[in-house]
Amino acid sequence: MDLFVTGMGAVASIGRSPGEIFDSLCAGRSGLAELRGFDRTRFRARNAYEIDDRPAPGADLPLRASRWLEQAVADALRDAGLPADLSGVPVLIGTTLRELRSVELSWRDGVPFDLGDLHFGTTLRRRFDAANTYTVANACSASLYALALGADLIELGAADTVVVAGVDTITESTYGLLDRCYPEAPDQVRPFDRGRRGMLQGEGAAAIVLSGRAGGRRHALLRGVAVNCDAYHPSAPDSASIARAIREAHARAGVRPRDIDLILLHGTGTPLNDEAEAEAVGDVFAGLPTVPYMTAIKSMTGHTAGASGLHSLVAAVSSLRSGVIPPVVGLTDPAEEAARLRLVRGGAAHAPLGVAQINSFGFGGLNAVAVVEKVA
Amino acid sequence: MTGLGTAVPGVAHPADLLEPGPPAGRDDPAARLTGRGMRYRDRATRLALCAGRDALAAAGLPAGPERAIDGAEIGVVTSTNLGNVDTVCETVTRIAEETYLGTSPMSLPATASNVVASWVAISYGLRGANLTLCNGPTSGLDAVHWARLLITAGRVRAVLVVGVEPVNPPVRHLAGDERALLDGAAALVVESAASARDRGVPALAAIGPYARKGSCPQAIAEVRHGLEAPIGLWCVPEHRMPIAPPGLDDAVTCDLSATLGGCSGALGVLQSVAAASWLGAGGTGMALTTAGAGEQADDDAAAALILSPVGR
């Protein structure tokens, strides 16, 4: 069965819609800024890729993630020409941190928070009358994992249309612990650059409407999604397991490595991720006369965690349609392992594109890889 | 379902969940796992590892090189709502008191809500699809449903489902009242009937219709639509319905929230374990499990799942 992306919505530090975000990506505009949400005196790190929607610096609000999710879903439905009514439509929401920022504010600062808002079904019930909703807390691979589940629902005949979303906000606990773990505080996300120091978090949401129905708007064809688990380490990746996920995605999509024109890398700018990802991609694409174009949008959005897989997918769809590939910002001195990659640098690239692969990995050794194809 | 496990104080065997009163004894099930590796595991992870190990062993799939199903073909679906709020809350308190330098780097993985599923996969070598559902009061039944879908979709051959909730000060803070809460876990193994037959292991219960709807009566009506056989066991949601839906008057009721305390994301898995024990022991009719009301502030929907006897 053919599955089409029929609607898209997204918000991030660099834009309030898929179009705004893609324009920023192609122009090399980053959302990097001084940390706004937390008391800066408590951290060594200075920067993040936040959405600037708080009333004043240092004054945080609960439920910001839920509001971005609402906006992204509403925009995706409008884009697909569907009403803002999800009473009969399954919704899968991928996230790393749910509304845990609201939990922090409630626990430490006494900000009121209702436990029912910790999962996103409650917001979606209020706004869209959705009841068949699933908050999938699959770390930073969550939204592409959710995409796999949504595709399965349609292929099994349990639904003809599903909404798949991803959302994350920065929590103070993860920001502080990352700061504690890195030898030096990262100044920015520099995927595959020798000067990388680790990742910085970003904020945002993305949503797509996925449909097996004939007719209507079509942004792209979803060829297949593979998921697996390293079962190796709680935070460090396993390149062999990543390579297996990529090969399975190709098999599910019915494509060979040489059919892939573009790869949206997971590219977090941490040495562990970048080395494992480059090794896996290098293995799978070894022996081709030219490897696909590759880019890593976290260099401009920051690591949007559970939303990052769908942020990359929405960007990939825009690249397929426009033939424009955003550059990797901050990549001036490629690390050794980048020699096997074909990273877009110094400005957007232009090329006719047919098929794109999107990588998304997370803590717990979770790997999800999707393949999408351009539609006429 | 081919294997069950529990890690609940005072519950020695899954069938004990069917006892009408609260379990006697306050033994700590997590004490059954020891070793250096446990040092940096959070409470939810340790409880889940206990229940998961028992369920895998009961299904004839203990970790090891001789396992009948390759680890790449076994998935994990975990359900928990409050599993990692202790790590998150303790960390922000430390940051306020001592800056980021006061935090423990070993706790970074536990800030992500999938930490339980991650350790279950690592500890038992399960490399198939790995899901964590944090889906409110229905989450445990949703987990059983998604385990079945992962198998039906051909992604894995078997799934270890774990539902777990710990009790600690941040959990108490979020619960907002003094009611009793479960500090425990339950686990079960799902595989296709053909897989159980090929391996020669007995199936305890078959997973039937499931629905997640805006209210509990709607969810029950949906899963019972077209079913002829009577409901012999009804596992009720935490917030009981004022009027029982028609056709359930003669069913034995099982109220795990009353006997164990509020179970949140573990409830549906505990109910499924209780119902499978009941069916496996020759209970008459089908079992109906229900979680969530869909009409409370913290409760966006209700789920219902039918479990039925196998081969009788």
TrEMBL record, chain A:
Pfam families: ketoacyl-synt (PF00109), Ketoacyl-synt_C (PF02801). Keywords: Transferase. PROSITE patterns: KS3_2. Residues 1-374 form the Ketosynthase family 3 (KS3) domain. PANTHER family: BETA KETOACYL-ACYL CARRIER PROTEIN SYNTHASE, POLYKETIDE SYNTHASE-RELATED. Belongs to the thiolase-like superfamily. Beta-ketoacyl-ACP synthases family. This is Beta-ketoacyl-[acyl-carrier-protein] synthase family protein. It comes from Actinoallomurus spadix. The lineage of its organism: Bacteria, Bacillati, Actinomycetota, Actinomycetes, Streptosporangiales.
